[in-house]
Sequence to fold (332 residues):
Amino acid sequence: MPVAPSRPRTPVRIFATGTTGFLGSVVAEQLRARGDTVVALVRDPVKANLLRRAGREVIVGDLADPDALHRGCEGCDAVVHAGAIYEVGIGAPRRVDMYEANVNGTERLLAAALAARVPKVVHVSSIVVFGDTKGSVVDETYRRTSGYTSYYEETKTLAHRVAEGYVERGLPVAIAQPGQVYGPGDHSGIGRLFRRAAAGKLPVLTFGDLGLSFVHVADVAAGIARLIDGGRPGQAYVLGGEMATLREAVRVVASLAGKPAPRFEVPSSILRVAARLPPDVAEVVRSADGVTFWATDAKARAELGYAPRSLREGLVSYRSSSSPSSSSNSSE
Fold:
């Protein structure tokens, strides 16, 4: 489907979750920059007060607070749901928190949006919903054929199904499926690896064969903004980037920073032994040892004009963050 010709747009009022997180904060920044009003769901009252003093509109509450969610949705032109817990290698207590946030939180928010008759909702899912693609590049029509590699993957899959269920109930939901998001402010395991590689402090690499669709956080945020404007209700859109192995990505980071790439890699045989260790360790291995999360973003490019930068262009930020003048970004 061709991209519709651009035309002047009217600023809208958007209720957004996850705005104090890595991706959600960039989404909120981009929406405000183009003139939209963002009403942010903020759990921490202290942080909420600071945002109010900065002129931001906030609703104090979290995804377990139906009243806050209903107040946030009332009178809004759109909802962006980016709030979620993202961790791999967790114990039983944290699993309870993750299910509550990722699955039940999505259910509550979409119920509030339906009750408020919000005209557009963007649910931020993930390409991990496809599961291990086993070296293949899939698209939005693909349905997983293997078990879950992590509890995060399981909860995001269940949340994705919740969103699809609300489409059937008449809620105009478009679903974003980002790849492996990276960039300034990324405190995930991948972000820490990149910072160490840029500083020349990564002599040994683990999970070099892990295959990911690396996408810069600003590009995902821009894709979500385009979904608000032109995403078709009931449709999912992969917001990916350059597909590569972790080994290839780390070598790019090291090269840009003028540092040596890791000289050694942990053998798969050792990783398989580690997979028999405690459940949290086993989950990390299961989710990364030779696994690929690869999906094409051709649909988003064709329908939305989505245009992510190359991996090399995006990873330049890690080169700058490893410099002495940017020490605040290189802390672990």
Summary: The CA atoms of residues 137 and 313 lie 22 Å apart. The chain has one domain: 13-321. Residues 13-321 form a domain with the Rossmann fold fold (CATH 3.40.50.720). The radius of gyration is 20 Å.
